[in-house]
Amino acid sequence: MPVASKKKEQSAAGSLIELVTIVAVALGLALGIQAFLVKPFRIPSESMVPTLSVGQRVLVNRVSQRFTDPDRGDVTVFKPPKGADDSVCGARRPATMPCPRPTKQRSDTNFIKRVVGLPGERLKVVNNRVYINGRKQDEPFINKGTPCEQLCNMPREITIPKDHYFMMGDNRGESADSREWGPVPKKWLIGQAFITYWPPKKVGPL
Fold first, then answer.
1. pLDDT tens-digit readout, 10-68
2. What secondary structure letter does DSSP report for 88?
3. CATH superfamily of 40-205
4. How far apart are alpha carbons 10 and 31 in whole angstroms?
C-alpha cells in the first residue's frame, strides 16, 4: 500500500475517533448538567395557572437548595409524599384543618407548586388566602377567579414541622397540594424553577 494512502486512512481513523470522543464528552456533560445542575420540566396540570400553563416548560435549578433553604414564594419541583397519589393525609384531622403531617413514604411522581409556608410557622387558609402566624399573606400570583370551596377554607391552624415546607398551587381551586397531603420534607425537594423557556412567547424568569 502506498505511504500516502496509508497516512490518509490513519488520518480518517483519527478524525473519526476524535469526533466520537467529542460527542461522548458533550453527551456526558449534558447528562451531568441535567443530573446535578439544571433540569427541564414540563407543566402537567392546571394547578399553577395563571403563573404556568399546561405544557409550558421550565428549567429547574438543582443546586441552590443543596446549600440554601427555600424561600416563601419559590416555585419548586419536588417529590410529594406517597399520600399525594390518593389525596391521603399522614394524620387524622377535621376537614377545617390543612393536613399537618405527610405520610412517611415518598411518591415517585414529580410535582411543581409554590412554597407558601416555612418550617415552624403556623398556617391556615381562609377564603382562598394563606395566613402565616395570624397574618394574611400578599399573594398577587394566585388565580382569584377559580371556584374554591372546602380546600380554600381551612381556618384551623397547623404548625409546619421542622425541615418541612407547605406547598400550594397558584390555582387554588384546581390544585391537589399540601392542604390535602401535608408539608413536604426538604430532602424530597428537587429544585427551584427559575425560568420558562417554552412556548417562545412566554420565555422569561419566574
1. 455 555 565 444 443 334 334 444 444 688 999 999 999 999 999 999 999 988 777 78
2. -
3. Umud Fragment, subunit A (2.10.109.10)
4. 31
Q: Which amino acid is at 144?
A: K
pLDDT digits (tens, 9 = 90+) for 60-102: 998 877 778 999 999 999 999 999 999 999 999 999 999 999 9
pTM of the model: 0.82
Q: How far is CA 163 from each of CA 22, 101, 119, 145, 171, rounded to the nearest angstrom?
A: 43, 12, 6, 33, 25
Grid look-up 407547605 returns 166
Annotated catalytic residues are 47, 113
| Cα dihedral sign, 189-71-201-44 | positive
